[in-house]
Design brief:
Blueprint lengths: L6 H8 L5 H6 L13 E6 L8 H12 L4 E6 L19 H11 L5
Parallel strand pairs: 1-2
Length: 109
Amino acid sequence: MGADAHAPSRTALLGVNPSAAERDAYSLERHVPPSAPPIFLSCAGDDPVVPPVNSMAMYKAVLEAGVKAELHMFQKGGHGFALRLPQSAPTARWPELMLNFARFNGLIS
C-alpha cells in the first residue's frame, strides 16, 4: 500500500488519505508470518497497472520470514494474464510453473 501500490486499489480499500499506520496495516509484505504456506508469485515486467516491484518486495519479505517461495517475472505479459494465452507467450507457462511449485512443496500430489 506504499508508493508503488496500485493507487485506485489503495483508495478503494483505505480511502483518499490513509494514515501511515493504515497503509502499514494493509501492506502484506510487512506482515509475513514464518508460518505462512509456500508462496508462488508471478508477474510481468511490462505490467502497466501494478509495478512488478510489488512482487519483488513480497518475495523479499517472504524469504526474510523463512517461507518457501518462488517468483517468476516475465518480460512481457501486461496485467492480469490468465489461462487462455497463446502458447507462444512466455506467460502461458505460469500454470505449469505453479503446479510444479505446488508438487515440489507437497501442496498437491
